[in-house]
Amino acid sequence: MYRYDDFDRQLVLERTEQFREQVERRLSGDITEEQFRPLRLMNGVYLQLHAYMLRVAVPYGTLRADQLRQLGYIARRYDKGYGHFTTRQNIQYNWPKLDEIPDALLDLAKVEMHAIQTSGNCIRNTTTDQYAGAAADEIEDPRPYCELIRQWSTFHPEFTYLPRKFKVAVTGSANDRAAVKVHDIGLRMHHNDAGEVGFEVIVGGGLGRTPFVGKTVRDFIGKNDLFSYLEAILRVYNRFGRRDNKYKARFKILVHEIGIEEVQRLVEEEWNLIKDGSLRVDDAEIAHYIEQFAPPAFETLTDDDAEFERRKAENREFANWVRSNVIAHKQPGYAIANVSLKPIGGIPGDATDTQMELVADLSDQYSFGDVRVTHEQNLVLPHVKKADLFSLWAELKNANLATANLGYVSDIICCPGLDYCALATARSIPLSQRISERFSDLDRQHDIGELKIKISGCINACGHHHVGHIGILGLDKRGKEFYQITLGGDASENAEIGKIAGAGFSEAEVVDAIESLVTKYLGIRETGERFIDTYRRVGMDPFKEVLYGDR
Amino acid sequence: MAIVKNDSVIDQEWITVDIEGDLPAGEENIIVPLARFKEERETLIGRNGGLGVQLNSGDAPEDLADDLDRLSIITVNFPAYTDGRGYSYARVLRERFGFKGELRAIGDVLRDQILYMHRCGFDAYELKNDDDVSLTKVRAALKEMTVYYQPTGDGRATAASLREQRRAAIKTAS
After folding, report:
1. Tens of pLDDT, residues A416-435
2. Contact (CB<8Å) A157/B119
3. Do A95 and A202 reside in the same domain of the chain?
4. pLDDT tier, A551 (very low <50, low <70, confident <90, very high otherwise)
5. By mean pLDDT, which of A45-54, A243-252, B91-100 is the weakest?
6. pLDDT recorded at residue A550
7. Which chain A positions have a beta carbon within 8 Å of B160's beta carbon?
8. N or C: which end of chain B has fewer CB within 10 A?
9. Contact status of B152 with chain A (Cβ, < 8 Å)
10. In Å, what is the CA distance from B143 to each residue of A17, A21, A409, B90, B106?
11. Among the three residues A238, A255, A289, which one is the final residue of a domain in this structure?
């Protein structure tokens, strides 16, 4: 895993000092709240409904055990003993005090972490596949490129006051687990005709109030040219992106308004002028970063482990967890273990200080001290010996971290909603809890199979409802919360924006509505079909009928 | 109002002329908006006295590509500090077209953006504070950070280049 050198360390310490000084200037009244706002936002500090909120970056969703342990400490020391993992693989603290935030940032800096550019109209934390470096279906580990993007984008002097925020996601696998098609830039690793590995560059995707699936601006860019190409795209956006209307300022709107061909022309023209410049990264430099993400010291094992098989056969609960939460690893004898942060009736993505510390310890014990955060708001221990899975599961279970529901109906993506967020129009957490409770029977969940429910508490779509197989959007109608249902969304390589089913439901009705959709699916599915497959086969009408009848 | 350049406060030696109206009759140094420069290029070039151009957000710095050696100064107007287009204009002027004259940030120029402006090629800053406060702010801003990840035309060594040097030195030593 990447370790800071003295340059990285120095930069974060300087930034921490800079922010401490900015906070002092704000507290002393030297700068106004309006002038302070972009400065605090650039350090991940939001002002929410009840308190300041601190969003800490987890670059490309990769954490070391000592870092996760420190996140647990920060939850206890500066917050109310918990943190919330987000859809951008970051963690948010809901209750820090402004005058203590500089100290919290210093504690983060001690473990090579920060809150830089987790907010503001700049290039945000780069996200990627949570199984990077472990997945059996991966072309190449995307993290070396993510780290290079992290450095290129950190305090980029030209791109710190963009028209709007800018998000980059990278996948190293054909099976996209990073939702790259709904980002400002999505990079998909693949081979060109010459057999070289490079990136398809997808631009203009995004959710929010105007959702779009991204479009390909270049089918293949070589690794050496990736950074000059990114710079060309950002320069085009910075110069030509709309600034007259906050809601039309995202890159996706520019792509939509002038068209992908014109964007391509502008980007290629710009890139041709800078591609031979100092942003060209040579093979030696790339190799240096690949080395930093070298695989851990795996043992040479056979892929079958007799003890593991015996445990599965004897313990149905363990077998169920393996079936849903354990994923194939590229190294024989190892597996990827997903740690669910979606206990039945719990708050999606929340983890307590002691849970974080436990997962940190378990990762030291079982997974080379490597932990990942997923955009679906769970944690991952990416390199676990199959022989250790049973012990790991038992320890996770004791801490309520072994819910066997990965990808199932209770594995809900959910934004903080009106319980915390200043932008929200409805609560989302209580609804996710009620849906989770309604489907609490795990056998039933396993029978239903993969079903991605995503809930947002306002049209900004932080809960990714547009790309939920079932999406739920919480709105406010004359002071009452109501919930709009969308169907058929998909965040994968087959990305689609869901369609609105019809009129919204009251808070009292919506869980029944979701259940009726599931019941309908179970009644009409063909063998092997997931909910989304059935929806694609039969379309909206049969589902609309169960929701609205003749209405 | 104060203009800070090269670690000191300098005098305002330029008159900024509007898009319309008469040009000063004498040999005053004038700065005209790009739109006027494009319209009255011949007259302006033929005039005695220094010539500069002001770029506003939405302008194309490319429009000045053939005339840069005639211009002593280009001012880039930041209508609000949140409007970052001027950073791109500065880099295009310096790095693509090799503009060597003064590049001055005007408008909503605040302390916390000055380092980024400098990294993009600005060498002068017009602040709304008095002389001493302005100079103090620019000095503090320019030394706030010492590690730079991105190569720009500002001549600062990037972390990548310093790492490379270090690796080369270790290689030579061993």
Report:
1. 999 999 999 999 999 999 99
2. yes
3. no
4. low
5. A45-54
6. 67
7. 151, 285
8. C
9. yes
10. 12, 13, 53, 20, 21
11. A289
C-beta atoms of B57 and A243 within 8 A: yes
- What would the pLDDT profile of A359-370 be if each residue is shown by its tens digit? 999 999 999 999
Residue A436 within a domain: yes
- Cα separation of B100 and B71, whole Å? 9
In a mutational test of the A interface, the residue from B91, B96, B117, B149 whose CB has the highest number of chain A CBs within 10 Å is B149
What CATH number is given to the structural domain containing A388? 3.90.480.20
How many domains is chain A built from? Answer: 4
Token readout for A220 is: 């293949």
Which residues contact residue A185 at a Cβ distance below 8 angstroms, ignoring those fewer than 6 apart?
Answer: A166, A167, A168, A169, A201, A202, A203, A214, A230, A233, A251
Check CB contact of B133 with chain A, cutoff 8 Å.
no
> To 10 degrees, the CA torsion angle through A190, A193, A195, A201?
-30
Calpha distance A486→A463 (Å, rounded): 13
CB count, 10 Å around CB of A277?
Answer: 13
Alpha carbon distance B85, A154 (integer Å): 18
CB A522 within 8 A of CB A451: no
- C-beta separation of B47 from B41 below 8 A: no
Residue A534 lies in a domain: yes
Kindly determine whether residue B112 and residue A5, on different chains, have CB atoms separated by under 8 Å.
Answer: no
Assess if residue A294 is contained within a domain: no
Model confidence at A299: pLDDT above 80 = yes
Q: A491 and A380, same structural domain? A: no
Do A431 and A347 meet the contact criterion of CB atoms below 8 Å apart? Answer: no
Q: Distance (Å) from the C-alpha of residue A164 to the closest C-alpha of chain B?
A: 10
Q: Among residues A281, A290, A426, A353, which one has the least CA distance to residue A95? A: A353
Q: State the nearest Cα–Cα gap between A540 and chain B, in angstroms.
A: 44
3-class DSSP assignment, residue A87: coil
A398-423 in b/e form (b: 16+ CB < 10 A) is: ebebbbbbbbbbbbbbbbbbbbbbeb
pLDDT-based confidence at residue B21 (cuts at 50, 70, 90): confident
SS (H, E, C) A451-509: CCEEEECCCCCCCCHHHCCEEEEEEEECCEEEEEEEECCECCCCCECCEECCCCEEHHH
Backbone angles phi, psi at A502, to 5 degrees: 160, -155
User: Percentage of chain A surpassing pLDDT 90?
Assistant: 95
Average pLDDT over residues A223-241: 98
User: Which residues does chain A have within 8 Å of residue B163's beta carbon, measured at their own beta carbons?
Assistant: 5, 7
Which amino acid belongs to residue A163? Answer: P
Candidates B147, B166, B167, partner chain A, best to mutate (most A CBs within 10 A): B147
Decide if B85 touches A, using CB distance below 8 A: yes
Q: Is B97 touching A (CB cutoff 8 A)?
A: no
Contact A162 B84 (CB under 8 A): yes
Radius of gyration over alpha carbons of chain A, in Å? 23
Q: Round the average pLDDT of chain A to a whole number and report it.
A: 96
| pLDDT tens digits for range A427-467 | 999 999 999 999 999 999 999 999 999 999 999 999 999 99
Instruction: Among A289, A318, A352, identify where a domain stops.
Output: A289
Q: Which residues of A touch B63 (CB under 8 A)?
A: none
Question: What burial class does residue A286 get, using C-beta atoms within 10 Å of its C-beta: 0-12 exposed, 13-18 middle, 19+ buried?
Answer: middle
Q: What is the pTM of this model?
A: 0.97
- Residues 17 to 56 of B: which have CB under 8 A from any A CB? none
The CATH architecture to which B2-143 belongs is Alpha-Beta Barrel (3.20)
Range of the domain at A217: 142-289
